Amino acid sequence: MKTRFGPVLALVLLFVPTCMADQKPTSATIISMTSVACGAKQESKKKSTTLTCQQYVVHTTTTEYQIRQQKPEEQEVLHANTQILFTLDKNKMKVKVNGKKYEFLVVGTSALSINPQ
What we know:
The protein has 1 helix and 6 strands; from the N terminus they run H-E-E-E-E-E-E. It is an alpha+beta fold. The chain has one domain (about 25-110): CATH 2.40.50. Strands 1-2-3-6-5-4 form a 6-stranded antiparallel barrel.
């Protein structure tokens, strides 16, 4: 039985570190920002307040992402035409801009058309 699992174990040990390696950050540009409803805060039994979050459109060379704050909290507003670096982790985008780190939910993606000239 040891001979069956030895080669498999060796392959797993070779490929796991490459899969777990950190992604290289991708550069992108924030194109626009809008405020969108992202929940409600119950103040009393009859009264509630709608909470808003910032939603950004981010462009890379090939893809457009729509990202949103995870929680309606006081967070610095990122301005249009700001260059960012980001990595993707499932449905989250980890952004670094001006030395600060933020985490956003990816709520939409689309491919950008490339016009041949």
